[in-house]
Specification:
Low-confidence stretches of chain A: 95-100, 106-111
CATH topology of the largest domain in chain A: Rna Polymerase Sigma Factor, Chain: A
Shape of chain A: elongated
Largest sheet of chain A: none
Helix content of chain B: 55-70%
Radius of gyration of chain A: 17 Å
Oligomer: heterodimer
Structural class of chain B: mainly alpha
Radius of gyration of chain B: 35 Å
Structural class of chain A: mainly alpha
Mean pLDDT of chain A: 85
CATH superfamily of the largest domain in chain A: RNA polymerase sigma factor, region 2, helix turn helix motif
Strand content of chain B: under 5%
Largest interface: A-B, 46 and 32 residues
Helix content of chain A: over 70%
Mean pLDDT of chain B: 76
CATH architecture of the largest domain in chain A: Orthogonal Bundle
Low-confidence stretches of chain B: none
């Protein structure tokens, strides 16, 4: 953690909004990514991202530096996104054409910058809700199955089964074209 | 169908970050609740003096109330082996009963039947009396059982403590003029 970052965290803990803006700029990319991938909707992802940062702001006085700030922040963001995902969980498949924001992804500077990447993003959004959540958390966010089981309130074995199923489905989706 | 390796490669190539289409900061900033600074608040010297004076006054008042009402002498009734009477002497059970009942009678004679602060205190006393009777019944079968003897003495001590507490609180209220 750089000295500037440490200073920004300390000032944000004391209520400095400018310092918090700096932290927001540093981390919004990853926060928005997990929100978007779990929720598959631009508006919901924006709302969840904002909610995540509000929680971070409220919890900042309790941040003691036991883990890295990024790890701590992304855990809050992931939990927030999962809460939104749980409220919004739909078990039906979502057609790629109807996935809000997918066509915009190509134009974003940090989104998948090739056809294969875009196809995979679309394929992930076609997954069933549980399989999508497990895949995003395991393959993209780096959580372990036991952690995912806790986050999603499912058995660890179910998490592994959902991941296996997600991979099978993704391979099939990507071979359709 | 894509192979497992191809899927892994595609997954690894996905960006870990995405930027929202619009800047979320302006609306986010509006949602941030105000937060007190974490810096420790400085206590002004005036407030510090007032706090110390209040604490001192509290100590004086509490000390005055405790000192003003003397506590009755405790009744030492030993049940250990060294104080055990001879076999021919009066059973210790009755000795305990005699001593405590005497003091209890003196205390009760000074008390009103109803306490302003404790209400119907005789009800509570009756509960202890019932317990004492039960222990006494057991002692008829095991007259030298030290646990039963200690239990009986403990029950009597609780009764006397309770009576003293009632007397102390009621008389303090009178001294403070609450009944005037």
């Amino acid at each position: 953690m750089s000295a500037d970052n440490t200073s920004a965290i300390r000032r944000a803990q004391e209520g400095d909004r400018q310092a918090f803006h700096l932290l927001y700029q540093q981390h919004i990319g990853r926060v928005y990514a997990v929100c978007w991938r779990l929720l598959g909707d631009r508006q919901k992802a924006e709302d969840a991202s904002q909610e995540s940062f509000v929680k971070v702001w409220q919890s900042l006085p309790d941040f003691k530096g036991d883990s890295s700030f990024a790890t701590w922040l992304h855990k809050i963001a992931t939990r927030t996104a999962i809460d939104c995902w749980r409220r919004d969980k739909r078990l039906s498949f979502v057609e790629p054409e109807t996935v809000d924001g997918l066509t915009e992804l190509g134009g974003q500077t940090t989104a998948a910058d090739n056809d294969d990447g875009r196809d995979l993003e679309q394929a992930i959004q076609r997954l069933p809700a549980q399989a999508k959540a497990v895949f995003v958390l395991f393959a993209l966010e780096g959580y372990q199955h036991n952690e995912i089981a806790t986050l999603l309130n499912i058995a660890e074995g179910s998490s592994k089964a959902h991941y296996h199923r997600a991979r099978q489905l993704l391979r099939g989706f990507l071979s359709e074209e | 169908m894509k192979s497992e390796q191809e899927l892994d490669q595609l997954t690894a190539a996905l960006p870990r970050e995405m930027q929202p289409q619009q800047d979320l900061w302006p609306s986010l900033e509006a949602r941030l609740p105000a937060r007190q600074s974490l810096k420790k608040r400085q206590i002004s010297p005036v407030n510090r003096m007032l706090g110390m004076a209040a604490a001192l006054a509290l100590i004086v008042v509490v000390g005055w109330r405790v000192m003003l009402v003397p506590e009755d002498n405790a009744v030492p009734v030993a049940v250990n082996d060294t104080d055990m009477p001879d076999a021919d002497a009066v059973p210790i059970q009755y000795e305990i009963t005699r001593q405590f009942e005497t003091i209890k009678a003196e205390q009760l004679a000074q008390m009103a039947p109803y306490s302003d602060n404790f209400g119907d205190w005789q009800y509570q006393m009756a509960s202890w009396d019932q317990a004492i009777d039960q222990v006494s019944g057991a002692l008829n079968y095991y007259p030298d059982d030290p646990r039963l003897l200690a239990q009986m003495q403990g029950l009597y001590e609780q009764q006397l403590d309770y009576l003293r507490l009632i007397g102390r609180v009621d008389s303090t209220a009178y001294i403070l003029g609450e009944e005037l």
